[in-house]
What we know:
rod-shaped; 4 helices
Amino acid sequence: MHIVAIGWLYVTALMALTESSAVAGVLTFLFYGVLPTTLSWWLSGGRKRHHRRAPRSEEPSPDARQSTRER
């Protein structure tokens, strides 16, 4: 995934260099490169964020762990 993002940012940087003005180049790089890349990284990390926020219901409670040790 990272190599694709790096490649895309490289292509958009070259596109930005060929623009007729500096403002157009910066806007090209931002709107064609940085924003889509950031959005795709954020969307692809959604499952990881969800798992970090979800409570861990699979872990036994401390009382359950103690009772299994006594057996």
